[in-house]
Amino acid sequence: MADINTIIFDLGGVLIDWNPRYVYRTIFDNEEKVEWFLKNICTHDWNERQDEGYSISKATEELVFKYPEWETEIRAYYGRWEEMLGGPIQESVDIFRKLKEKTDLKLYALTNWSSELFPIVLNRYDFLHWFDGRVVSGEEKTRKPFPEIYQRLLDRYNVKPSEAILIDDSLRNIKGGEMLGIKGIHFLSSQQLYDELFYRELL
Questions:
Q1: DSSP character at residue 74
Q2: Which residue of 78, 95, 110, 149 has the fewest CB atoms within a 10 Å radius of its CB?
Q3: CA-CA distance, 98 to 77, in Å (whole number)?
Q4: Residue 85, strand partner residues
């Protein structure tokens, strides 16, 4: 695709395996309890507030106040957060490496991630330093799929949306980018990603 000169990567679920279930499977004795807790107490929406820049300590104390009977389990969410990191998704990192070494594409990261926690992965994973630029939601005080965060990346790095592709494991976030004219690849697996990039003649 001669018109594409930029690829924008999501991080969690695409290049980095992150899953709170890794911790809560050691706390609860069955999957049903894990899923109930993550659906009703430490929810995805609750975590996204911190991705958007809300204080982790304030969020934790507020949730403990609301659900005091779950205090230990709530504090484990950020207290044991590093245990939720499963490591790099190596096949995806290999694709990223090929794009970096074999193409002239500009490569950026656009991630929903708490600014308090992002330095941990930045120090842990060298490949996060390969990007030509990064936009981290917690630093921007907004997140995907809100249009402001996509626009900030476009403006900051002089990217034309019609010349960019966003790779994200969230269809919601893909649709958010498409609203601004950014093409999307909904990440399902590393092999699927490779096949899509190969089909588009980007690899």
A1: H
A2: 78
A3: 35
A4: 18
Q: What is the pLDDT of residues 89-140, one digit of tens each?
A: 999 999 999 999 998 999 999 999 999 999 999 999 999 999 999 999 999 9
**Exposure class string for 32-53: b at 16+ Cβ within 10 A, else e:** eebeebbeebbeeebbebbbbb
Closest CA to 27 of 16, 17, 18, 38: 38
Residue 105 backbone zone (phi > 0: left; psi -120 to 50: alpha; other: beta):
beta
- Omega before 119 cis (within 30°)? no
Nearest residue to 11 (alpha-carbon basis) of 110, 87, 97, 83: 110
Radius of gyration over every alpha carbon of the chain, rounded to an integer in angstroms: 18
Q: What is the pLDDT of residues 29-58, one digit of tens each?
A: 999 999 999 999 999 999 999 999 999 999
